[in-house]
Write a structure and sequence with these properties.
By secondary structure, this protein is of the alpha+beta class. It contains 3 helices and 3 strands.
Length: 113
């Protein structure tokens, strides 16, 4: 979700909460964060590679409303041994994007009816 917020909002969140490190791979400087957020926007999904805990990986995708505003996100996480390789990098993000598209469709349809 952070990748799809306005720059001013991202700066405000970083100012308020900082970038505390939860693991050796956590992004803890603003320049690297901004670069990673740009990459996330470009590919359409985010990876968590042990940023929140050793041995855990995850993939997340945003959920958008009809105005393309990020409403939230869905993600899957689990043991690194189960989430790696092509499954982790390609298949899982595609499944999550398909699921997100269905949720968005249902949300937009329900809101408009």
């Amino acid at each position: 979700v952070l990748a799809h917020l306005p720059e001013e909002r991202v700066a405000s969140i970083v100012d308020e909460y900082g970038l505390p490190s939860a693991s050796p791979t956590t992004i803890d400087d603003e320049s690297t964060l901004r670069s990673e957020l740009a990459s996330i926007r470009e590919r359409g999904h985010a990876f968590n590679e042990e940023e929140f805990g050793r041995g855990f990986h995850g993939v997340g995708v945003p959920l958008f409303d009809e105005s393309e505003d990020a409403l939230g996100a869905i993600s899957v996480s689990g043991p690194k041994r189960n989430l790696q390789g092509e499954y982790f990098r390609e298949e899982l993000p595609n499944v999550l994007k398909q699921t997100a598209n269905q949720i968005e469709f249902n949300y937009i349809y329900d809101v408009q009816s």
